[in-house]
Amino acid sequence: MNQTNDPNSITGENRNEQNENVFARVQDYTGQGYDLEGGVETDKIAEAHRNEVVHAVEKFFREKYKTEVIVHNLVGNIDGVTVFVESVGEPHFYTFAVVPIDVASNKVLTDKVWSQEGQVEGDIISGIYAMVYNTEIQNLDNYLKEFISKNPVVGRRDEAVKKVGGHGFSTPYYYINITDDAFEANLTEMYLTNPDWTREEWKKALTNVNLDPTLIFVTLQLFMKEPGTKPDNNIFKNIVSDVEKMDNLPPGSYSILLHDNRIGKRTGRAARENTLERGVPNEIIKN
Length: 287
Hints:
Elements: E1 23-25, H1 40-48, H2 50-65, E2 69-76, E3 80-87, E4 94-102, E5 107-108, H3 119-132, H4 134-150, E6 153-154, H5 158-164, E7 169-170, E8 174-178, H6 187-193, H7 199-205, E9 216-224, H8 233-245, E10 252-259, E11 262-264, E12 276-278, E13 284-286
Parallel strand pairs: 9-10
Antiparallel strand pairs: 1-11, 2-3, 3-4, 4-5, 6-9, 7-8, 8-9, 10-12, 10-13
């Protein structure tokens, strides 16, 4: 993605994130301090025209994607403002759009709202996937809830997911990204034609549609509960082993990350220098 508008891009490559002043405890982080490169002026203009921006983005999603959204956050970027949204109802997903801003004229270009190519489409597909595999998703949620209750680990706060998420179907503990060719059907076109389909209608429509689990990416992310604690190798091995053994999970390619307690305020990303990870090219494949 273009760094200007990527909600997860690392802003300012020369920033030293080893400085503890730029980190927060994951339990405390709600998106405060998050920024995008070159967004100081555009952020001010966007906030001054907040209602215009919100209405323009809501209209954009209604007209182009047949979807009602809730706007959670506005973050200035070098060319405009990145707007983080959450879909209303199902399919449920998080995504973002960009509203250009003419800094010279102090004008928000509400008629030129756009989204990264394929971004929203992929996020919609992940929401449909979660509808179709709702039982398996609930199995994953139940497992993680139990695991967290027995181990000193936590996930991100709901507010952080909403305000700086942009990751399709997401929870505090994982997010799901899906490529547009994961299913042998064009789910985006199906959705735009049938935006009000129920879960059962989607299940029926996809009954005989094959999917490729290697193109469905389920990323589990947990954090150590206590500050100053390194990722625990035994905890990490246990969750990897559990996921490997479970046979009632939604199909996909699973990556597992265990971080320490820190999250970068400006980037919304975990500190990664000591992260324990099982992932590419050794993901856990569930069919």
